[in-house]
Design a protein that fits this description.
The protein is elongated and about 90 Å long. It has 5 helices and 7 strands; from the N terminus they run αβββαβαβαββα. By secondary structure, the chain is α/β, with parallel strands linked by helices. The N and C termini lie far apart (about 70 Å). It has a single domain, classed as Glutaredoxin (3-Layer(aba) Sandwich), CATH 3.40.30.
Length: about 170
């Protein structure tokens, strides 16, 4: 009986030590963040035609913070939020890039909305919805706040007002 009082704790100690020493080691350096739609991850590349006939390439915006908004003209919260985006775009000028990615609509429907609201920022056309899918957009509006290095620093799902917009822009400006 006394022998088991010594053997049992010894087995526990030796077994625990073996588990500790044989565990897999963590890598010494962390890998670079993978592209993806999450906060503190690199923003996936976007190459889309724009409403005005040009091409929008997200990587060409590096060096400036980007407000990347996914919207559609039929979306009522989008319609209410777009004037705040336009006002912020006018306020920040060339310091922040504002982009409104339209989801799956015709150029005519989008142009009507753009004219009605007086939008002056880039309007890439995601007709197939592939970019929205790549960014895991589950509802509209959805806005990504990307810093000058291409890293997503904040994400807002749903309608924003000017205060929410300003708070999130503050997270991506130096």
């Amino acid at each position: 009986m006394n022998r088991w009082l010594i053997v049992f704790p010894l087995i526990l100690i030796l077994g625990s030590s073996w588990l500790w020493w044989s565990r897999p080691q963590a890598p010494a350096t962390a890998a670079a963040p993978k592209p993806g739609p999450g906060v503190d991850r690199m923003a996936p590349e976007i190459v889309l035609p724009t409403l005005d006939g040009g091409t929008f390439v997200l990587s060409e915006q590096r060096g400036k913070p980007v407000v990347l908004n996914f919207w559609a003209s039929w979306c009522m919260p989008c319609q209410r939020e777009l004037p705040a985006l336009q006002s912020a775009a006018e306020h920040f000028g060339d310091q922040v890039v504002f982009v409104g990615v339209d989801q799956g609509e015709t150029a005519e429907a989008v142009q009507k909305q753009v004219d009605q609201l007086g939008l002056t920022f880039a309007i890439p056309m995601d007709g197939s919805g592939d970019v929205g899918y790549q960014y895991n957009v589950k509802g509209l509006p959805t806005t990504f706040f990307i810093d000058a290095n291409g890293m997503i620093r904040s994400l807002w799902m749903g309608e924003m007002n000017s205060v929410t917009l300003a708070e999130n822009i503050a997270k991506i400006r130096p």
